[in-house]
């Protein structure tokens, strides 16, 4: 099929739209930056696209809580379009501020059902440190997660850049339910642990967990595995030259890729997964 | 309209925290050693709208309070609610904004309110925050507490002490707005008055014009031709209107016209006997060399005349850079002043050519010592508070704008207590050609184009910023010169403007900074030789601004953009899409007149030529006498290992990581060298390196140099050292030394001899010497200065209370990098790697960091001596080229320049970054004293590490360059430095890490 069309939202303080569009294009997507108001006004329709990305940034300055005001615009003005998008089985990703937006619209973690109900069940709140920070963390993925975005990914280094990344839910039973469905897709881990055994429910100390997230959660998916959000920035490690260890010749990543030769970074696979999923399934 | 109060507080529960309260608690501990048991926070919203409180109450959790993590309540004070606050606090402080001050959360809340209540058209929301203190020590007064938590220039605070709290009387901030003012018709200003009255008129009106300038204006209105033209235009003939006088004062301000750099200087050097005339420092030492270089290369696209300097980066893209200072506003309100500094310089980039996209920021700050315990002059904040506020302002401004901060520095000196220096720089990128074929670095306005004001509205904020910054800071400095930025309003505007550019809708663009519309439209009107403005069309934040206020207000987030009449509809549509304010307010003409109307009435009618070229050239006196500085004599006996740990903890050397990490340095996914590098990502980075085109490793290096200490001996040496440091840092990343460009940002104390400044001749001579060195070094390095700025009144107070900053040059550099995959960082990589010193050490301990440290501790009595010199810069250039190309070809991946603390500190930092030991022998690094070779700060030096298998090739490559073997990286825990058979010091690497990282970590830790 032709290159899957990716809508990368921008406007109102979203600011990772350029690089988010670029990484989809590097893996065979046809990404376009679309202003939120283009969808709201009806000038453009989400129906034109097969993938929706809500990039990082500071939508509305994160005033009144990160992602909240953008989440409201989407919850109230784009509800039907989003519902139809999810119902059509099309993948959605929210990164950093985009994850916060998806949580506050209620798309993540969503109900224990295939279709969204736009009820907020979790939140992302101020880091325990009280500080916005840009630092690299180690992530591990749940092999058994239904998430289509993370297939085949085990562990990666990735930058976080946020002040409100602490994932919280009201009770442990909420977490247990998500865990049972393998929706706690990606978590902060201690890089000293064995790959595959780093995930723990016990809160890791700062800065292994940069924000004090409950159960060290970095990202979750919905019940279908199509809607996924995470605080770290996989798009910011699309190339090995963006990894802090590249001058030490130890930046991890595939040995070879069509996109970047020997220099593909670990983050690109996430976007390739979605593009390939669409090519295969839609 | 009714006012509804909504209060929100974090829910408490397992794993839940009140982080805002925690931050206040930690800062009280870190800055004031005050231990408080708990601090709780409440955010308040005062909503003035047509919606009744009952309806709002039903939607509190849709907008104001997060349903998962916050509790909210309507029309009540949460402190009275025992469910949320079961115990009584010992003190409460609540802080809101003064009426008319930018309230960003309030603006966002109003926007969100509209989403929930689409029927509500005119809702206006203001916000406040309340802190409740539990277990506050009894000797802490609540008024003092309030003072540390707010700035009374822009905010108001209410308090409750223990007794008031016990009585349950909580402070409640009420909704207020600025009372509307009556529009006042423009006044005529009588200039036919005695000279002394002219001077008084300038001073009381904050015009910052001198007598000769006032007389020049007076003469203009006596000119018969001028009077005849004014009668024809229907404006008062023989006197300026207040609009005209204010407009001239802004345009002719030191801030805008750089009158000292443009002055005619009579310079005497008492040592050489020189007695000469310099006709403009700027033209002689900065512009001329750059223009000479422009004749020899094809990549200098636009220098000096635009908002930033532009170079061709490759065939498809050009890049530009600008740096500014925001010192005076940052002294009065560190947070707002610094934030408007960074978002302001972003607009300079947006206003370059037909619009460039800001892609990286740099921030360099100069503060008083954060642990200062001495006296503080009235009206000045403690340096730690300035530091926190400035950092927060730049952090919020940069992060929310989505622009990574890739490079910077923080410098400390007692004298910056009087005036902090806040340098903000931005790098931009634009396509060489737009889709319509126009070259993007060239503005193309013609007479008849419509001039829009885009972005925000105009208010009282920021009136007189340009003239204010041209005066010294006093206790009476006006609060109207202070404002807070709104990065999101600006971000929306940036998105919109770049789309308008690519659609070919823009013919001319510039930012509204100092001087507001008078400067922005005034400058652009030079292109077509005229404009006609209607101030009544300008959208206002508050009704009633008079004409001159509208013209000179420096309200933030505004660009001035020219659009062809036929493109206006498309331009308006883009503004609507992005929800950006865009209003046509003027038309370009070719009448030769800066013509300002308010509705039908002409309120200003100034010839463009007089406005821009009418200011008389200053005539200034300069006299150089070498300052007498007691020599630095190192102590006879010294424990160098102990000195090493102390040096690493010096604020000028210590790690700034906890601060820098709070800047987003990786947004845009381009940053190939981070500010902190190494195995634990906590060693010092030398330069920023970005690859801004996704998928392409073509790079751009960004670096800076700053060395104000040397000004105590010779400001010329200071300038040379600053430039050399910027170049060295860039070389460490492997810059292409044949394609580098620089920015000179001078911050000086007042250098005009007067009663207030009796030593003006000396300070001006410092400026002359600094600029002569700038020319000499830049010519030798083939380093054109493409943009720059000066801030010439960095003094506090007068007489004995006067504090003048040390003359300070920030030199910023941006340069080409062929491929970011081949670069170097300062961290040691592997045990066994071979360490070399590249460059030569000299006996240059004058004004060194070690001399200052030992003087402060009483172990030495002076800091005098020879400061670092740059005797043969052309030789350095050859060495830099060899080293840079060695990095570009992958011969070495480890390089670090020697600056503060010399070879000793450089090697220590390399050990820290790699968490490796090293064994170094200084024997062979010259014949100077051990002190000079270990701690001296001679320029043109690097420590590099090379893998053993590449050592041979590296040495061959460096053949002919001074390259001296130092030693090896080792597995063990120690850095050992010897001098031949003498062991000089052994220092444990983890101990060095602790010293280096502990000194400036003012975060109070993370529990």
Task: Describe the protein's architecture and organization.
The complex is a heterodimer of chains A (282) and B (1007). Chain A has 282 residues and is an alpha/beta fold. In chain A, 24% of the residues lie in helices and 20% in strands. Chain A has seven helices and eleven strands. Chain A has helices at residues 17-26, 36-41, 68-77, 79-87, 97-105, 172-180, 268-281, and strands at 5-10, 30-35, 51-54, 92-95, 123-125, 133-141, 155-162, 166-168, 186-188, 217-221, 227-230. In chain A, strands 2-1-3-4-11-10-9-6-7 form a nine-stranded mixed beta sheet, with helices on both faces. In chain A, strands 5-8 form a two-stranded antiparallel ribbon. In chain A, α1 (17-26) links the parallel β1 (5-10) and β2. The model of chain A has no long low-confidence stretch (mean pLDDT 96). The mean pLDDT of chain B is 94. Chain B is built from 31 helices and 39 strands. Chain B is an alpha+beta fold and 1007 residues long. Among the domains of chain B are: 2-166, Phosphoribosylformylglycinamidine synthase subunit PurS (Mth169, Chain: A); 305-619, Alpha-Beta Complex (Phosphoribosyl-aminoimidazole Synthetase, Chain A, domain 2), CATH 3.90.650.10; 824-1007, PurM-like C-terminal domain (Phosphoribosyl-aminoimidazole Synthetase, Chain A, domain 2, Alpha-Beta Complex), CATH 3.90.650. Helix content of chain B is 32%, strand content 24%. Chain B has a seven-stranded mixed beta sheet, sandwiched between helices. Classes of the chains: A alpha/beta (282), B alpha+beta (1007).
Portion in beta strands of chain A: 15-25%
State the major sheet of chain A.
9 strands, mixed
CATH-level-4 superfamily name of the domain at 305-619 in chain B: PurM-like C-terminal domain
What's the overall geometry of chain B? globular
What is the strand content of chain B? 15-25%
First and last CA, distance of chain A: 9 Å
- Give the spatial strand order of the biggest sheet of chain B: 16-18-15-19-17-20-21
Largest sheet of chain B: 7 strands, mixed
At the first level of CATH, what is the class of the domain at 305-619 in chain B? Alpha Beta
């Amino acid at each position: 099929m032709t290159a899957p069309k990716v809508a990368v939202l921008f406007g109102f303080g979203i600011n990772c739209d350029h690089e988010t569009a670029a990484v989809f294009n590097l893996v065979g997507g046809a990404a376009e930056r679309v202003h939120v108001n283009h969808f709201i006004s009806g000038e453009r329709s989400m129906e034109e696209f097969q993938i929706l990305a809500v990039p990082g940034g500071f939508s509305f300055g994160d005033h009144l809580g990160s992602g909240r005001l953008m989440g409201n615009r989407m919850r109230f003005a784009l509800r039907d379009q989003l519902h139809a998008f999810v119902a059509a089985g099309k993948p959605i990703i929210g990164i950093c501020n985009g994850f916060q937006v998806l949580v506050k619209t209620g798309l993540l973690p969503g109900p224990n059902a295939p279709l969204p109900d736009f009820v907020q069940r979790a939140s992302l709140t101020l880091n325990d440190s009280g500080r916005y920070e840009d630092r690299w963390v180690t992530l591990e993925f749940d092999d058994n997660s239904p998430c289509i975005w993370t297939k085949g990914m085990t562990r990666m280094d990735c930058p976080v850049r946020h002040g409100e990344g602490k994932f919280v839910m009201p009770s442990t039973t909420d977490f247990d339910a998500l865990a049972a469905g393998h929706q706690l897709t990606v978590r902060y881990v201690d890089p000293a642990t064995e790959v595959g055994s780093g995930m723990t429910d016990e809160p890791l100390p700062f800065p292994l967990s940069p924000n004090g997230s409950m159960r060290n959660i970095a990202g979750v998916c919905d019940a279908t595995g199509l809607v996924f959000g995470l605080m770290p920035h996989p798009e910011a490690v699309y190339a090995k030259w963006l990894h802090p260890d590249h001058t030490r010749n130890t930046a991890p990543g595939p040995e070879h890729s069509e996109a970047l030769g020997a220099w593909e970074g670990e983050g690109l696979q996430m976007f390739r997964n979605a593009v390939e999923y669409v090519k295969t399934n839609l | 309209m009714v006012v509804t109060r909504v209060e929100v507080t974090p829910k408490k529960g397992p794993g839940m925290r009140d982080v805002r309260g925690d931050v206040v608690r930690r800062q009280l501990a870190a800055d004031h050693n005050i231990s408080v048991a708990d601090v709780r926070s409440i955010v308040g919203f005062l909503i003035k709208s047509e919606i009744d409180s009952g309806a709002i109450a039903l939607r509190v959790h849709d907008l104001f309070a997060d349903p998962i993590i916050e509790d909210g309540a309507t029309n009540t004070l949460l402190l009275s609610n025992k469910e949320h606050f079961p115990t009584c606090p010992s003190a409460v402080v609540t802080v809101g904004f003064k009426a008319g001050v930018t309230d960003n959360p309030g603006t966002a809340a109003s926007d969100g309110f509209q989403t929930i209540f689409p029927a509500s058209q005119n809702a206006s929301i203001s916000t406040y925050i309340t802190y409740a203190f539990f277990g506050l020590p009894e000797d802490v007064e609540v008024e003092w507490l309030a003072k540390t938590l707010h700035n009374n220039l822009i905010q108001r605070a209410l308090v409750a002490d223990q007794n008031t709290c016990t009585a349950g009387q909580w402070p409640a901030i009420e909704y207020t707005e600025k009372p509307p003012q009556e529009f006042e018709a423009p006044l005529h200003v009588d200039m036919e008055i005695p000279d002394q009255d002219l001077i008084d008129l300038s001073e009381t009106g904050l015009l910052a014009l001198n007598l000769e300038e006032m007389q020049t204006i007076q003469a203009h209105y006596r000119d018969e031709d001028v009077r005849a033209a004014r009668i024809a235009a229907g404006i008062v003939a023989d006197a300026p209107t207040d609009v005209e006088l204010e407009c001239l004062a802004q345009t002719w301000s030191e801030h805008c016209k750089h009158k000292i750099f443009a002055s005619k200087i009579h310079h005497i050097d008492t040592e050489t006997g020189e007695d000469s005339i310099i006709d403009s420092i700027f033209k002689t030492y900065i512009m001329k060399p750059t223009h000479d270089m422009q004749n020899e290369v094809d990549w200098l696209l636009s220098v000096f005349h635009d908002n930033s300097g532009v170079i061709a980066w490759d065939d498809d893209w050009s890049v530009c850079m600008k740096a500014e200072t925001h010192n005076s506003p940052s002294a009065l309100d560190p947070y707002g002043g610094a934030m408007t500094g960074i978002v302001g310089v972003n607009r300079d980039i947006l206003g370059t050519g037909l619009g460039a996209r800001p892609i990286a920021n740099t921030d360099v700050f100069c503060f008083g010592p954060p642990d200062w315990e001495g006296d503080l002059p009235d009206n000045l904040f403690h340096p730690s508070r300035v530091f926190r506020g400035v950092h927060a302002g730049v952090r919020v401004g940069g992060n929310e704008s989505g622009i990574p901060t890739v490079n910077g520095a923080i410098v400390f000196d007692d004298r910056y207590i009087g005036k902090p220096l806040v340098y903000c720089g931005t790098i931009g990128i634009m396509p060489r050609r737009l889709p319509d074929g126009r070259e993007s670095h060239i503005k193309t306005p013609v007479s008849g184009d419509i001039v829009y004001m885009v972005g925000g509205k105009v208010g009282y904020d920021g009136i007189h910023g340009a003239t204010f910054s041209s005066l010294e800071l006093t206790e009476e400095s006006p609060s109207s010169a202070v404002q807070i930025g709104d990065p999101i309003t600006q971000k929306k505007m940036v998105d919109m403007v770049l789309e308008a550019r690519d659609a070919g809708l823009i013919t001319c663009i510039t930012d509204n900074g100092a001087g507001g519309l008078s400067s922005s439209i005034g400058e652009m009107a030079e292109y077509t030789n005229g404009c006609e403005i209607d101030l009544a069309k300008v959208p206002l934040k508050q009704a009633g601004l008079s004409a001159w206020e509208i013209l000179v207000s420096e309200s933030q987030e505004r660009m001035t953009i020219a659009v062809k009449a036929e493109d206006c509809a498309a331009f308006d549509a883009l503004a609507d899409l992005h929800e950006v304010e865009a209003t046509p307010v003027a038309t370009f003409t070719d009448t030769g007149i800066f013509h300002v109307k308010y509705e039908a009435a002409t309120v200003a009618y100034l010839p463009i030529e007089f406005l821009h070229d009418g200011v008389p050239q200053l005539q200034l006196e300069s006299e150089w006498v070498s300052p007498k500085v007691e020599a630095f004599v190192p102590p006879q006996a010294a424990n160098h290992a102990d000195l090493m740990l102390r040096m690493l903890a010096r604020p000028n050397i210590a790690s700034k990581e906890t601060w820098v990490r709070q800047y987003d340095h990786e947004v845009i996914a381009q940053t190939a060298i981070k500010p902190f590098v190494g195995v634990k990502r906590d060693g010092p980075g030398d330069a920023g390196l970005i690859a801004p085109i996704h998928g392409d490793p073509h790079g751009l290096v960004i670096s800076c140099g700053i060395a104000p200490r040397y000004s105590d001996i010779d400001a010329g040496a200071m300038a040379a050292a600053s430039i050399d440091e910027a170049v060295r840092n860039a070389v460490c990343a492997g810059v292409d030394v044949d394609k580098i460009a620089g920015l000179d940002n001078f911050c000086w104390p007042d250098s005009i001899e007067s009663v207030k400044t009796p030593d003006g001749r000396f300070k001006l001579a410092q400026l002359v010497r600094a600029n002569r060195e700038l020319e000499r070094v830049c010519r030798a390095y083939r380093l054109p200065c493409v943009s720059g700025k000066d801030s010439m009144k960095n003094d506090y107070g007068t007489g004995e209370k006067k504090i003048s900053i040390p003359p300070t040059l920030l030199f910023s550099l941006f340069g080409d990098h062929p491929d970011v995959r081949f670069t170097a960082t300062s961290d040691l990589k592997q045990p066994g790697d071979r360490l070399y010193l590249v460059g030569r050490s000299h006996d240059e301990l004058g004004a060194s960091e070690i001399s200052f440290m030992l003087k402060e501790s009483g172990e030495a009595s002076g800091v005098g001596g020879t400061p670092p010199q740059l005797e043969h810069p052309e030789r350095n250039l050859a060495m830099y080229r060899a080293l840079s190309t060695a990095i570009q070809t992958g011969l070495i991946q480890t390089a670090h320049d020697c600056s503060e603390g010399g070879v000793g500190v450089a090697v220590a930092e390399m050990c820290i970054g790699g968490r490796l030991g090293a064994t170094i022998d200084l024997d062979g690094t010259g014949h100077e004293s051990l002190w000079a070779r270990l701690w001296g700060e001679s320029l043109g030096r690097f420590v590099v590490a090379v893998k053993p298998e590449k050592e041979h090739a590296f040495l061959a490559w460096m053949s002919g360059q001074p390259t001296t073997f130092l030693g090896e990286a080792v597995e063990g825990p120690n850095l050992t430095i010897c001098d031949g058979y003498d062991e000089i010091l052994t220092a444990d690497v983890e101990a060095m890490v602790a010293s280096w990282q502990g000194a400036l970590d003012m975060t109070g830790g993370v529990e």
